[in-house]
Structure formats: structure tokens, C-alpha cells
Amino acid sequence: MRRGLYAYAITRARQIDLEGPWLISHRGLALVVAEVDLDRFTGLECDEPDEDSPLAVLVREHDAVVRTVFRHEPVLPLRFGTVLDGADAAVRLLGARHVEALAWLDRVEGRREWGVRVRASGHEPVNLDEVSGTAYLLRRRAQLAAAENARHDATAVHQELARRAAESTRRDLAGDLLLEAAYLVDTGSEEDFQAEVHRLTGELGLSAEITGPWPPYSFTTVEFADA
């Protein structure tokens, strides 16, 4: 059995009660680690996207530890699958990006990530047996114009929400999504932020889905895994 240290996140070097993982500290920073069987990470790229797959189980374990730390201290989640040789490698990792890590911890302290997905309201299906070709084309043209307007409205929603967040980032769209974005929001402003999501999308006839709160997965851009 091959053993290694799995690294979950970077936080401040303060006492946190964890069941299993522990902290390796260096110059005011701490790396959250646990000893793991490296064979668990072999062949994960071949996993089917299933919630009970070995990959999904490991991702949930990773997120659970990050969330536990996040309840106590600001946290910089590390890339999933960051495995180190031992404690010396952990200290090197902490030292390699020490200044950036401290700055990012200050940046995310007192803030949590919220995800927002925006979709257009659904259209009634067209029964082709009940409309003429001309009527169908006119309706189709109106639908295309409405879709373009909805995309413009979703951009306006993002711009307004971004002004109410400390940080924001848009993600690539898939399916019927008009907007998928993440926002780093002060904990004291979260209720107002969510109310604004619903107000803006409601006024524009869009539907919104809010997820969170999350640790700042989308806003810790310093790369630690290469240390």
C-alpha cells in the first residue's frame, strides 16, 4: 500500500478541531492534510460521472473537510487531488506562495461564495398543425428576438450583482443557461444579495437558481499545487 499526504486547503495557523485531518503550520499559515492510500486515486479519470463512483466519493470527502475548516477560519481550497510526499513537502508548499496566501486569506475573510444560474422562462410548444407557415416563421422570429433580449438581460443581471459582490466570475454556459456565475459576498450582505437576485430576474421575467454558501472555490486563484 502506497501512502502519501493529501492536501485539502490552506488556512491560518490556528487551533481547529478536525476528525482525521490535521494541520501542518509554517510562518502563520497551515496546510490541512490527511494521510491517504494513494491507490484510491489511481484510474479516477476512467470513472463514470456517477454520484457513487470512487471519484465522486473522494470529491465529497474533499469538500467536507474544506467546509469544516471554512466554518472556523478563512480557507483557500487546494486543487482536488493534491498529494504530497510528506511534511517537508507541505512546508515547502506553504513557503512557496507565502505572501500570496496571506493576501488571499485576508481577501476572502468574512465572505462566502454564492452561485447563480439564470434561465429564460419557458415557451409554449407550437403545434405545427394549427398554424400556417407564415405564422410559424413570425413566431419563430419573435422567439429568437426574445432569446437575444434574454441574453442581454442576463448580462445586465450579472453586472448589477457583480457590483454588490467583492469578486465575481462568469462560467461557460451549457444547455438553456443564460448566466452561470459565482459571487464572493460579505456574510453581512448575503440576504440582500439573494433578494436582489430574485428582484432583478423577476422584473425581467427570468428564472434564477441560487446555490451556496460555498467556500471560495472560484476565487482562490493562487496556484499552490506546483510548489
Describe the protein's architecture and organization.
- InterPro entries: GvpL/GvpF.
- It is found in: Gas vesicle.
- This is GvpL/GvpF family gas vesicle protein.
- Keywords: Gas vesicle.
- With 227 residues, this protein is α+β, with helices and mostly antiparallel strands.
- The protein folds into two domains: 3-108, no CATH class; 111-214, Alpha-Beta Plaits, CATH 3.30.70.
- Helix content is 37%, strand content 27%.
- The protein has five helices and nine strands.
- It has helices spanning 54-70, 87-96, 98-108, 133-163, 190-203, and strands at residues 3-12, 22-26, 29-37, 75-77, 83-84, 111-120, 167-170, 177-186, 206-214.
- The strands form two sheets. Strands 1, 2, 3, 4 and 5 form a five-stranded antiparallel beta sheet that branches. Strands 7-8-6-9 form a four-stranded antiparallel beta sheet, with helices on one face.
- Strand 2 and strand 3 form a beta hairpin.
- The longest helix has 31 residues, at 133-163.
- The radius of gyration is 22 Å and the shape is globular.
- The protein starts with a strand and ends in a 13-residue tail after the last strand.
- The mean pLDDT is 86.
SSE topology:
Layout: E1 3-12, E2 22-26, E3 29-37, H1 54-70, E4 75-77, E5 83-84, H2 87-96, H3 98-108, E6 111-120, H4 133-163, E7 167-170, E8 177-186, H5 190-203, E9 206-214
Antiparallel strand pairs: 1-3, 1-4, 1-5, 2-3, 6-8, 6-9, 7-8
Helix pairs in contact: 4-5
Write a brief caption for the model.
With 227 residues, the chain is α+β, with helices and mostly antiparallel strands. The protein is 37% helix and 27% strand.
